[in-house]
Every structure is written in structure tokens, then in C-alpha cells.
Fold:
Amino acid sequence: MSQRRVIAVGAPAPSDSQDSAPPVIELDGLGVRFGRRQILTDLRSRMSGRAIGLLGPNGSGKTTLIHTLLGFHAPSSGTARIFGRDIRTEARAVRERIGYMPENESFIAGMTAVGLVRYMAELSGLPPRAATERAHEALFYVGLGEARYRKVETFSLGMKQLVKLAQAIVHAPKLLFLDEPTNGLDPPARQRMIRLIREIREGGIARIILSSHLLRDVEECCEEVVILKEGRLVTYANLEEERRGNRRFLLIEMRGDHATFADAIGRLGCEYALQPDPRKIKVVLPPQIEIRDLYTIAAEQRVQIRRLDYRRDSLQDIFMKAMETSHGGV
Amino acid sequence: MAVYEHTYRAYDGALTPPRTRFLIIPRYAYRHVLRSRFFIAYMILCAFMPISAATLIYLRHNATALDMLHLTASQLQTALPIGANFFRFLMTFQGTLAALLALFMGPSLLSPDLANNGLALYFARPFSRWEYLFGKFCVLGILLSLVSWVPLMLLFLLQVSLDGTSWLAENYNIGVAILLASALWILVLTLMTMSASVMIRRKALAIGAVVGYFFVSWAMSGTINVINRTSWGDIIDVTKACGRISLYLFGVELPDDYPIWRAWTTVILFCGACVWFLNRKVRAYQVVR
Structure:
């Protein structure tokens, strides 16, 4: 059965004209302390992207940051603003604009999926009729339409994740906090979740903050990334710009005289490193050199290129660089 | 909007007023509760005594009915006077039924939300912890009202309508006593069972804890009183304190060794402790310090 999949844009998609609008999130010296433990320290940043990845190793403060922005924890110093509204003084107004998909299993026992999502929509302020209508829509949207009358506790982990997403988007928030949305999902379920997140991003209905320790998820969904380490913000990067500015790497597997080939590409201006396996060579490609130039040299040197792995500087590289920074500022 | 289109769209309709959103909690809770046949049967049982009392009040004022029963109004008034004691007895009876209802319903009020991290879903919305607690309070508070002060006030009004304003002028304190004593008892029962629900996630154990509290506080206060030859032990027995306040409100003279301020202190301390505990425990996430 073919079904239309439409993302009707109700809210304006972000554009250049929004540069004058307040940033999605503005961290202004935000600090959080639990007893004697300092969890977040002097976070400062302005985030404006459509989808922002929140990265960091376990215990770096990603979830605490989200919880603080949601008002679950009071800041011990500084503050933050979401769409220009202060989380300390305008917490209710902030939460009216937010949808939250928690990391842990979260549901109310004894409720069906549609009952739970409708209940959450009503608590967000939707009138009962609109809440009912949107609960059905949200569940169909995430792919749980057929299972919506089943009790949530009978769902698989992947389905529970989708219910959490449905309750987070049911009231059409302007900002979505997704905390580890692909946790525990098998590859097809993970792909479905990633696709949904990208659709929401592209639809422009909501900005997204995606917290994850899975770099691939963030790389696939986000345009900007914030990296936390030990409660400090060590990197705030625009992924596209980073990729553009970063070098390209090649791992070439060949047959023939690799030493002659290496000399030839060295003369061309490429950095290279011979690998323990004599058939392989690692090459850093300068911006002015194209891959076809390597094939030309290989042909001239009578070397066969059997395999060529090409990769740009990945999020992993950005992340690893950030982790090497001890206490960096942005 | 047709759901088969798998459409997701922004919402630009009106929102409900924030001040009344806490009432969503009781509305959803009652949908669940009203499916229980046991609950319906119990509520019918709770109506038995008020209906019987209403019949008595009616008979007391209906000469034809009294003639048919070969009774006179004065005989009936002598046998069963309708006054403070009549309403106090009814309040004690209905209060006991209310306690049983609270015991049955209260322990499962909050635990399902706590057991599955449901609180984060509530508090990530424009919905505060106090609204949540008040909403949950209303779930039980409204049901207990239906068992306690609502039928008693209806009886009181029936009596006033049949006996006239002169009876009201003499006995207005009964109405005040019904309202205040019931409100106090509802407050104590609801806070106690809500706290038990937060403390113990399993319903059976939570019920056991509440029953245990009633028994242990009664036994301990008695023991302290006997050993120390005092009445100060009563300060830990909130049930007794509520009973004393109720007697006081109905105009019954209290013994000197149990002044009313001590009963009030017990109730205030107990309620304060429950509110403090609920405030500490009902959070989206518990912080490990």
C-alpha cells in the first residue's frame, strides 16, 4: 500500500532572516552543582542551527545540561536562554516551546500508546479534541499507527523509543531535545529513527538538540555540534564548515612498485605514509589534487590501484581533537 | 486531518488555560478507576448509610409515614435524635469508609509514574511539580469528598429544609464541623497514602505500610502514655488527633489532659512532613549528590 508521507511546514523554516532572531539556545556562564560536585562549569555558547548535536563521553554532562535547560535542575551559576527566554525566570514559557524525549524508558503503566500521547498533549495545553487528533497523527507519523491501542508496557524497546518521540512532538514544539534516541535500537529501527529526526529537521517544524555518544547518529542528523568534556564546553563546531576545511585521506591498496609510486605522488605535493603492509600506502590529498591525478600517476608508473578508501576528516576526528584539549574554551 | 497521510504539522490552535490543567490528571484517573466494578460497588456501598439517614430524617418530618409505622415524631426523636451526635456518628462511619477507599486507591496514585520514569514526561511540559501533586491530590480528594462531606452536607441541608431556619440557627456549627473535620481527614488520608505511594512502589506493600502506620502509631502512643503516665504519646497518633479535633468541632468537651492545640500540632506536623517528603521525592530525576 502506497502512503503519502508529507511534512507540512507550519512553522517557518529557518532562514538567513532568522539571524536577527534570538539564538535557539544561549548559554551564559551556566554552571550546575550537585552538592560538592561541580557537574557543569561556566558554559558559554550561542547555538542557532536547525539540528545541534550534543556530544561527549559518558559523564561529561550532556544529560545534565538538557535537564537544566528543561528546569529539572536549578543552575548554581549563570543562566541560559531558549529562544530568548531565561530558564531561571521564564521556565514555564520555555517548556511550552520544548519537546523532550528522555533517555530512559519513560511511560505511564496501564496506558495505551494513544492514551499516553493524548494525555501528554493535553498537559501541554492542547484541548481534548485537538490532543486526540494529534496523538493519532503523531503515532502514525512515527510508524506506530497500527499499534496505537496497545499498552506501552507491551511494546518492544524500539517501539517504546518511538512512543517517546511521538509524545515529544505531539504538541508541535519549536525545540526538540532528543536524549540518546537510538539507544538500544537494532539497525533497521535505528535507521527509521534517524530518518524521522532528519525529516523533522528538514520540515523546519522544530529545531533539534540531539544528545548522543554515538558519533554516527550526530553526524547523520546534525549540522552543528557541541562537545562537552568534564562539564566544560570544549568545542562548538559547524560540521559542514569543518568538513570543508579539513583534509582528505586516502588509503590505497596497489600492486606494483609502490616506492616509485610514492615518490611520484610526493613530487605532486601529497603527504604519504607507507604502511606495514607493503601493498598499502596512506595519502593526504591536498585541495588542488584530485583522485584522478593519482590514477594518472599510477598509469604512468605501471602500478595497479586495486582499492582506494577515501574519507574526509570525520566527526570522530573533531571529537578526538576536542578530547585531547584539556580545558578548552570555545 | 487524515491520519493515513502520515502528516505531521505545526499546531496553531488555542491552548487550554494553565490554571485548570491540573484537572486533566483526575479526569484521566477517573476514566481508569470507573472501569473497576469493585470501585463502583464500593461507592454504592458508601451511599447506603447516607440514604438510610436521609430516610430517617424524612420520616421524622412526615406525619403520614409515621402514622403508617405507628410512630410519633417525638418517639422517633427520642430514639434517634437528629443533632450533633447523629451527624458525628455518620461522619465517623463515612470517615472509616473514606479511609478504606484511600487505602485502596492512594498507594497506586503516584507509583506508576515513578516506577517507569514517567515524571520526566510531566515536568518537561508547562506543568509544575506542585500542579502535578495537586492534580494527584484532587484524584483522591474528590472521591473522598463524595464519600464524606458531600453526602453529610446534603443530609444537613435536608434537615435544615425540613426543620427550618430555627434549627439551622441552633446547629450551624454542625455544618461547619462536617466541612472542617472532613477536610482535615481527607487532607491527612490523601497526604499519607500519596507519601506511601512514593515511598513504596508496590501497591500491596504500600497498603501494608499505611495500615502499619495506623496500628504502630496507635500502639506506640498507648505504650508511651502507659509507661510515662502521660498523654503526650498521643502526639504521634494522627488518627486520634483528627478524632479529637472532630469532637471539638462538634462541640464535645475534651478531657483536660489532651488540649486541642496538641491535636492541631500533631496534624500540622504530620501534613508538613508529608509535604516535605513529597517535595523531596517527586522530581523528574533524583540527583545523587
